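Risk register update: the risk of archive-format incompatibility is retired. Evidence:
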Amino acid sequence: MHVPACVLCEAGPEEVVWRDARLRVIVAPVDGLGDVARIIWHAHVAEMTDLGAAGRQHLMAAVWTVEAALRELAKPAKMNVASLGNYVPHLHWHVVPRYTDDAFFPDSIWSARRRTGVIHGLDRGQLAAALAGRFASGAQPSAPA
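Archived output:
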């Protein structure tokens, strides 16, 4: 179902690093932090339980695959994975590499800044290639070596 007022129903000025028929993975900057990934379900669905079992499994496999790729490429101190959807009730997950020197650490990225912080960018081409390889091989997400 397409909902015209929903900013996630249509791809906007975002950088898509991987997509399939059901979801897309984007990378976007967060002020004071750097790049984070979002996994966005294409159809307008508000809650995980609105998806069937196969859809939930597909979405969560994508979330864990993105997390594993970011851990390997970005080498963060911690990973945050969140699905809030209060402001935009359209199923999407945030996968956020966290660093002890980012502006918000150890609080959430939606908290007040603690310091100026270091901006950590991602090589989006490397991430796109890593995701394409992981998804194409059907590899299960695993911890970085």
